[in-house]
C-alpha cells in the first residue's frame, strides 16, 4: 500500500531557454540531458514520487515538447520494441508514464521563477505543494530531500525549504544564502528558522554557509504572497523575493540536509562535474 501524505502535488518549473547550453538546447531542454543514463528531470520526478507525490505539474514553454513527450505514451515506439522482444524496455517506459498524474502548463515567455509558479495556481486546488527544480539533483544518505522537507512540513505545519551547506565561499554568490536561528520545537539541530534570505550575496557578505535552495514545501496561501510581491531583478517575479515577504509575516523553516550531494545541471561546467560526481556516488553505494 502506498503512503499518503498531505503534500500530494509537485511543481517542477522547466520553461527556460537554457541559453548557457546553446546550441544544444535549441531543440533539447537542459532538463532532458542525461545523468546516469536517464534525464535529470526523471531523477527529480522519481524523488518526488518516492516522497508520496501523486500529481506532478510541469511548467514549460510551448516550444518545449520534449518533456511532455518523454512522460507520455509513444505507441509507435512501443510496438517497435515489442516486435523485437524488448518487453523489459517497454515495461520501463510504461512505468515512467505511470509514476504520477502529469499536468503541463505552458508559459509564453520567461517571467522569473515566481511567475512560473503562479502559472500553476489553478491546478493546486488550495492544497500544499512542493517545488523542485527540473535541472538539478540532490543525493542524500537515507531519506531524500523531498521526504525530509515534507516530513518537517507535516510535523510543524509551516513552510519548509531545504538547506544545503555551500562550503566554498566563492560559490555563495550563486545562491540564496540564509540567515538562520534555532527553532525551539526541534531537537535534532537539522531544522532551523529562517530570518532572511540574501539572494546571491556579494563576496564576504553571506549571512551563513547555508543556501536555502532545491525544495520548497509551501501551502496555497503562498500564492497570495506571490501575487503581491513586487517585480524584482530584470523586471521579473522571483521566488526569493516572495519568500522574504513570507518570512516577514510567519515562521519559515529550513531543513538542513546533512551530507547532501548537490548536482547542479543548469550550466555546462557544473553539468560535467555532476556527471562525474554521480558516477562516483553510484560506485560508493554499490561497494
Report a brief summary of the structure.
It catalyses: alpha-D-glucose 1-phosphate + UTP + H(+) = UDP-alpha-D-glucose + diphosphate. This protein has one domain (9-286): Spore Coat Polysaccharide Biosynthesis Protein SpsA, Chain A (Alpha-Beta Complex), CATH 3.90.550.
Give the number of DSSP strands. Answer: 13
Note the beta-strand portion: 15-25%
The gross shape turns out to be globular
Secondary structure category: alpha/beta
Largest sheet: 9 strands, mixed
Give me the CATH architecture, please.
Answer: Alpha-Beta Complex
**Secondary-structure element sequence?**
EEEHEHHHEHEEHEEEEHHEEH
In the CATH hierarchy, the third-tier topology is known as Spore Coat Polysaccharide Biosynthesis Protein SpsA, Chain A
Assign the CATH superfamily.
Answer: Spore Coat Polysaccharide Biosynthesis Protein SpsA, Chain A
Tally of helical segments: 9
- Outline the low-pLDDT stretches: none
First-to-last CA distance = 31 Å
Order of the strands making up the biggest sheet: 5-4-1-6-11-8-12-10-9
- Taking all Cα atoms into account, the compactness measure Rg is 19 Å
Please estimate the helix content.
Answer: 25-40%
